Amino acid sequence: MKITVVGAGAVGATCADNIARRELAEELILLDIKEGFAEGKAIDMMQTASYLGFDTKIKGVTNDYAATADSEVVVITSGLPRKPGMTREELIGTNAGIVKSVTENILKYSPNTIIIVVSNPMDTMNYLTLKTSGLPKERILGMGGALDSARFKYYLSQELGCSPADLNAVVIGGHGDTTMIPLIKHATWNSIPVTKFLSQEQQDKIVAATMVGGATLTKLIGTSAWYAPGAGTAAMVESIVRDEKKLISCGVALNGEYGQSDISLVVPVVLGKNGWEKIVNFDLSEAEQAEFNKSADAVRNMNNVLEL
Ligand SMILES: NC(=O)C1=CN([C@@H]2O[C@H](COP(=O)(O)OP(=O)(O)OC[C@H]3O[C@@H](n4cnc5c(N)ncnc54)[C@H](O)[C@@H]3O)[C@@H](O)[C@H]2O)C=CC1
Ligand SMILES: O=C([O-])CC(=O)C(=O)O
């Protein structure tokens, strides 16, 4: 198994670290445009192998796409992160060009790969990849729901005083401060609806905190988060390469599902060796479907900015 991570910055390096620790690949290529940067990070990670006991061979390269040839999965994290006070959408001007050129270069050497897009604004960057790569839609996934669902579980666990591992909680919609939809009415604590234990005020607080989870961390850190984004992306990679069939919220092309078409939005999908294998329908309430449609309108407005 060969995996490539493009972008050796905060998220890309953390994702690579998670992939190596779990030995999801024999060969892991880390690629960055900044001279020597990916090489340095790869050597640093390889020097943890004797302590962590992994066998994955990590190699860093500067813009050398030939080294990525025949990758089965490629994660794209290249691009600018936001600064405090910015929205993810404001990154579109720079990141669209980066994601498009990276995708073209990757496909020259791995024409049948599975691509996971992390760069923001993720919903629109994933749509761009869907429109320009020519890959089957099942082989293109956006990472956002995996992270937002983990944040949702974190905030629920804080309020309930429970382990996040005992929670089932899902975020759908867009990966934006105002477009994500934490489905609190569907969330359970070991099969019991969480709403049974939480006042309306607590529920509203958890949903609001989840939606601005990324902005909160950006304000605290000065740039956006990387530990949970790296771990969430690696969980998607793991379900694909081990064919685990995990149900994870991902950005995928909708073709009538959830009432939307010609758009990438976050919905629960089964992840296996062929990419996303099935979209699972949630039977949304009327109010939830209205929120989903509103998120779709906002994401579509961003998509319209792209020069396709
Ligand atoms: N979808 C999600 O849930 C999340 C998305 N993000 C997004 O991921 C992206 C990366 O974030 P960070 O790692 O924190 O940023 P970073 O600045 O630490 O790393 C980005 C890396 O991309 C590299 N790069 C830029 N242009 C490139 C190109 N053409 N080819 C190869 N490499 C290139 C840069 O040299 C840099 O090392 C941002 O757009 C951020 O908004 C971050 C967290 C979560
Ligand atoms: O907040 C950001 O800009 C980065 C991101 O997508 C997240 O951490 O959710």
TrEMBL record:
<dbReference type="InterPro" id="IPR001557">
    <property type="entry name" value="L-lactate/malate_DH"/>
</dbReference>
<feature type="domain" description="Lactate/malate dehydrogenase C-terminal">
    <location>
        <begin position="147"/>
        <end position="301"/>
    </location>
</feature>
<dbReference type="Pfam" id="PF02866">
    <property type="entry name" value="Ldh_1_C"/>
</dbReference>
<dbReference type="GO" id="GO:0030060">
    <property type="term" value="F:L-malate dehydrogenase (NAD+) activity"/>
</dbReference>
<feature type="binding site">
    <location>
        <begin position="7"/>
        <end position="12"/>
    </location>
    <ligand>
        <name>NAD(+)</name>
    </ligand>
</feature>
<feature type="binding site">
    <location>
        <position position="151"/>
    </location>
    <ligand>
        <name>substrate</name>
    </ligand>
</feature>
<feature type="binding site">
    <location>
        <position position="95"/>
    </location>
    <ligand>
        <name>NAD(+)</name>
    </ligand>
</feature>
<comment type="similarity">
    <text>Belongs to the LDH/MDH superfamily. MDH type 3 family.</text>
</comment>
<dbReference type="InterPro" id="IPR001236">
    <property type="entry name" value="Lactate/malate_DH_N"/>
</dbReference>
<dbReference type="GO" id="GO:0006089">
    <property type="term" value="P:lactate metabolic process"/>
</dbReference>
<keyword id="KW-0520">NAD</keyword>
<dbReference type="InterPro" id="IPR022383">
    <property type="entry name" value="Lactate/malate_DH_C"/>
</dbReference>
<dbReference type="GO" id="GO:0004459">
    <property type="term" value="F:L-lactate dehydrogenase (NAD+) activity"/>
</dbReference>
<dbReference type="InterPro" id="IPR015955">
    <property type="entry name" value="Lactate_DH/Glyco_Ohase_4_C"/>
</dbReference>
<feature type="domain" description="Lactate/malate dehydrogenase N-terminal">
    <location>
        <begin position="1"/>
        <end position="142"/>
    </location>
</feature>
<feature type="binding site">
    <location>
        <position position="88"/>
    </location>
    <ligand>
        <name>substrate</name>
    </ligand>
</feature>
<comment type="function">
    <text>Catalyzes the reversible oxidation of malate to oxaloacetate.</text>
</comment>
<feature type="binding site">
    <location>
        <position position="82"/>
    </location>
    <ligand>
        <name>substrate</name>
    </ligand>
</feature>
<keyword id="KW-0560">Oxidoreductase</keyword>
<feature type="binding site">
    <location>
        <position position="120"/>
    </location>
    <ligand>
        <name>substrate</name>
    </ligand>
</feature>
<dbReference type="InterPro" id="IPR011275">
    <property type="entry name" value="Malate_DH_type3"/>
</dbReference>
<keyword id="KW-0816">Tricarboxylic acid cycle</keyword>
<feature type="binding site">
    <location>
        <position position="32"/>
    </location>
    <ligand>
        <name>NAD(+)</name>
    </ligand>
</feature>
<feature type="binding site">
    <location>
        <begin position="118"/>
        <end position="120"/>
    </location>
    <ligand>
        <name>NAD(+)</name>
    </ligand>
</feature>
<dbReference type="InterPro" id="IPR036291">
    <property type="entry name" value="NAD(P)-bd_dom_sf"/>
</dbReference>
<dbReference type="GO" id="GO:0006099">
    <property type="term" value="P:tricarboxylic acid cycle"/>
</dbReference>
<feature type="active site" description="Proton acceptor">
    <location>
        <position position="175"/>
    </location>
</feature>
<dbReference type="Pfam" id="PF00056">
    <property type="entry name" value="Ldh_1_N"/>
</dbReference>
<protein>
    <recommendedName>
        <fullName>Malate dehydrogenase</fullName>
        <ecNumber>1.1.1.37</ecNumber>
    </recommendedName>
</protein>
